Amino acid sequence: MADPRPADVRAWARSRGTAVNVRGPLPSALVQQYVDAHPNQSKGAPVARVAAKKVQPRKARRGAPRKAQPAAGAEAPVATTSAAGTTGTAAPGKLASAPGSIDLAAGLRRLLTSVESEVREVSALSEQIDELVLELNERREEQAKRLVVLDALRQSVEDASLGAFLEKAIRPRRTRVPEVIPERLTQA
Fold first, then answer.
1. Within a domain: 65
2. Between vectors from CA 150 to CA 149 and to CA 156, what angle results, nearest 5°?
3. Contact between 94 and 78 (Cβ < 8 Å)
4. How far apart are the first and last CA of the chain?
5. pLDDT tens, 163-179?
6. N or C: lower Cβ tally within 10 Å for the chain?
7. Number of folded domains that form the chain
């Protein structure tokens, strides 16, 4: 076999987990790796021909802008698709993942980033709750002190009608909003 077929090189590269473009020229290093891995199939020589095949540009439609072609010998950025379906560009020299493949490392990074973000948010909320509970406790203590003063005032009154008035007036209003603590927060 004189030249390895580009389809064979692509299939071999994907089976090894290497991302490779579906179309276009293959990197010469990748073709050389294929030839080295399959010594019985090729007779050594024309790696450069398979890797350097030029893709002839199609004729542009009238009025349609032409895409800029990379300079000779320069590698163009490779389009990539992430697991979330977003498209980006890989740096020159890096191979894009095959369509439909899943980039597990990027997916795990995104997951860990979102988990870390949620943990920070929960921690910030816990700190705010602690500050509010401290303020609530201070206000309850102040309320209790004022009620003690009012109770002493009521007990010091000798007039029965004034005492009855103070009895009704000094009753503290109970809170109308129940304090709800989710079950998950009470677990250790």
1. no
2. 95
3. yes
4. 68
5. 888 888 888 788 888 88
6. C
7. 2
d(CA 82, CA 106): 8
Calculated CA dihedral for residues 98, 100, 106, 107, nearest 10 degrees: -170
Residue 188 CA to residue 169 CA, distance in Å, equals 43
| Single-letter residue type at 151 | D
For the record, the structure tokens of 28 come out as: 């010469």
Q: Please give the pLDDT value at position 88.
A: 52
Q: What is the pLDDT of residue 94?
A: 52
Range of the domain at 163: 105-180
CB 77 within 8 A of CB 95: no
What pLDDT score does 78 carry? Answer: 47
Return the bridge partners of 78, or none: 90
Measured distance CA(9)–CA(162) in Å, rounded:
101
| Segments in the chain below pLDDT 50 | 1, 42, 44-46, 48, 50, 52, 72-84, 93
> CA-CA distance, 30 to 84, in Å (whole number)?
28
- 72: in domain: no
